[in-house]
Amino acid sequence: MGPLLALARWALLRRSLSLVQAARSLHCGVSSWIHVKVPPEPKEVDRWTEKRALFGVYDNIGILGDFHIHPKDLITGPKWLQGWQGNELQRCIRKKQIVGHRMFDQDYKNLNKRIRFLYRRFNRTGKHR
After folding, report:
1. What CA–CA distance (Å, rounded) separates 105 from 41?
2. Do residues 104 and 126 lie in contact, with contact meaning Cβ atoms separated by under 8 Å?
3. Distance from C-alpha of 87 to C-alpha of 103, rounded to nearest angstrom
4. pLDDT tens sequence across 53-109
5. What's the CA gap between 56 and 41, in Å, rounded?
6. What is the pLDDT of residues 26-62, one digit of tens each?
7. pTM higher than 0.70, yes or no?
8. Are residues 95 and 80 in contact, defined by beta-carbon separation less than 8 angstroms?
C-alpha cells in the first residue's frame, strides 16, 4: 500500500505544479504556447500591367461604332480559330477539315498522329466517358 500511496501523491504533486506554472506564465505575460498569427504584408501590385491596362478595351465598340463590328472580329490569328472554342482534339479535327488539304505531308501525318493519340486518351480517361 505504501508504494501505491507514494505514487498517487507524486502524480497529484506533478499535476498541481503544472497548473501553478501555467497560471504563473499567463500572469507574467509569457505566452510561449499561445501563437497569434500576424497578417501578411501587403503586396506591391503593378496597376498598369498590359492585362490590367487593356481590361474592358472592347466594351464600348457597340456603343461607339453603331454595332457594326464585334470584338471577336478584332482577334488576330488563323481564320479557322477566330471566335471558336474547344479542346485540343476538337481543334485538331477542325484544322484537318479546314486546312488539311493544304498541309505538307509530314505536318499532315503528325496532325493525324496527334488526333489518334488524343482520341484514345479522351475515350480512356476523363469525366466525359
Report:
1. 57
2. no
3. 21
4. 888 877 776 666 666 777 667 778 888 887 788 999 999 999 999 999 999 999 999
5. 30
6. 555 555 667 788 999 999 999 999 989 888 877 776 6
7. no
8. yes
Any residues with CB less than 8 A from the CB of 83 and at least 6 apart, and which? 72, 73, 75
Helices 88-99 + 105-124 axis angle, to 10: 150
Burial call 48-76: b when 16+ CB within 10 Å, e when fewer: eeeeeeeeeeeeebeeeeeeeeeeeeeee
Amino acid, res. 57: V
Residue 129: DSSP 8-state? -
